[in-house]
Every structure is written in C-alpha cells, then in structure tokens.
Amino acid sequence: MKYQYAIILKLITAFVSLVFITQSAFAGMTISGTRIIFPGNVREKNVRTTNKDSVPLLVQVWVDDGGKNDDINSIKAPFTVTPPIYRVEPGKGQSVRLIYNGMSLPQDRESVFWFNLLEIPPENETVKDFDRLELAFRTRIKIFYRPSALKSGSIQEVEKLKWEFIRPARGIKVINPTPYYISFYSAYITSGSTKSPLAVDMIPPFGSKEMLVDSKTSRPATIDSVTVRLISDYGSIAEYQLVPKSASELMISTLPK
Q1: Which homologous superfamily is 29-146 in?
Q2: Phi, psi dihedral angles at 108 (to 5 degrees)
Q3: Domain-by-domain residue ranges, the chain?
Q4: Which of 40, 49, 97, 209 is deepest in the core (most CB within 10 A)?
Q5: 199, 172 in Cβ contact below 8 A?
Q6: What digits encode the pLDDT tens for the residues 13-69?
Q7: What is the pTM of this model?
Q8: What pLDDT does residue 16 have?
Q9: In what order do the strands lie in the sheet containing 171-175?
C-alpha cells in the first residue's frame, strides 16, 4: 500500500511540474522584425526587443556566422551587440545597438549572419521544491549585410532568377545570378488537382539550389505549374507562379498584386 501511495505521489508531483512547465513553455521576448537588413553605409543599427511575459527576464544577445561553434567568446563576426546582457521588466522593451566592427566583407554581394537572443526566466518559487525542467529560450534571426553599392532588395531581383525542371518531375533548380540572398517561405508543384510541396532553402548570391519533392511524397506525373513564396526585406510574403517555358525551363507568369 505504501509503495502504491509513493507511486501515486510521484505521478501527482510530475503532473504538477508538467502543468507549470507547459504554462511557461513559451518565449517571452520578441524581436521587432523577422530579419535585419544592415546597410553598408551605416556603422550601427538599433534592434528593438520586448518582454511580452508577466515576469522580468534576463537577456543575452550576440551575433554568430551560422557555424556550429557554440563558444560565444571564440566566434568571429563583423558585429558586436551592446548591451550584451540586460534585464527587461514585464511589458517593457529594450533597444540594443548592433555595431559594425570594421571586419572586411565582400562588397559585390550580401553576407549573412545571425542575431541571437537568449532569455533566462527567473526561478518559479511555486515549484522550487519539485523536480522540474528549466527552459531557456533562444531566438535567432538573420542579419543581411548589404554593401552600399547594392541599391535594391532581393524581391526586386526575382525576375533575374532562372528556373529549371529536374526530371522526371522531381522538383526544380533555382539559379541566382544576383548579389542578393533569395529567401523562400514555401514552394509546391501543381499537377492537375494535386499539390506536391518542395523542400525550400535560402539561395546565396551567384549560387543555385535544387528544391525537390519530399522523398515520402509520390512524385507528380507532370508539372502544370510551380508556386513559390519568397520573403521580402520586411518579412512579408510575395507569391509567384511559374509555368513551363520550354522542355527544361520555367518562367514567371504571375506577379504579386
């Protein structure tokens, strides 16, 4: 009987802890915008962060190059962020300065880096005597360093992209002859009444990517059209429809309204 009681008590304790974790398991800090465009003719830019939570939060921010090195102190990036650590009260905001440190970067194309925000919530006094899982949330958004010689944005360059079939109906290849990163939100092939999603990726300047139908999805028999959704400088979505131009190429037939 005592053994059964101990098991029940542990289950209740685990459930209570899970409830508190579930209630608090969301990011409280937000960043204004989904990406940062850093013009090459400025030295610094402000990034606004806001605490949407009901408790004060401790925040750490830094920039990395997207590599696998997790040691913040050894990361080499062209930007510093100040203040690197700060506290934000509930419902309040804090602007941080993103400062270009002068590191040499290509001037004929964009470069991409990552802005990181790590939030550490305060200890929850109501569950401090229970076994629990402490969660620290990390948010990352891209920083696009845009040299001053580049005057437009990536969406304005879409008509310069080249689109090719990957036969037999496996997907498409996108060739980017522009100096901009092209960011995709989604893409799919339309064959009759069937829509087959494609695995999308960001395409670097003067690079190319293959976007294929998921291996778990049956390949469409034909390609009537391809719909692609691209992300603009402001984080909005622009949709384009592509139709066959020849046996090997596609062309844009529909522009965003």
Answers
A1: Immunoglobulins (2.60.40.10)
A2: -105, 5
A3: 29-146, 154-252
A4: 49
A5: no
A6: 444 444 444 444 566 899 999 999 999 999 999 999 999 998 899 999 999 998 766
A7: 0.83
A8: 40
A9: 194-197, 184-191, 225-231, 237-244, 249-254, 162-166, 171-175, 208-212
Pairing between β-strand 111-120 and β-strand 137-146 as defined by DSSP bridges: antiparallel
Look up the CATH superfamily of 154-252.
Immunoglobulins (2.60.40.10)
Residue at 200: amino acid letter: V
Cis peptide before 179 (omega within 30 of 0): no
| Tokens representing residue 165 in the block | 């079939």
Cα 147 to its chain centre, rounded Å, is 22
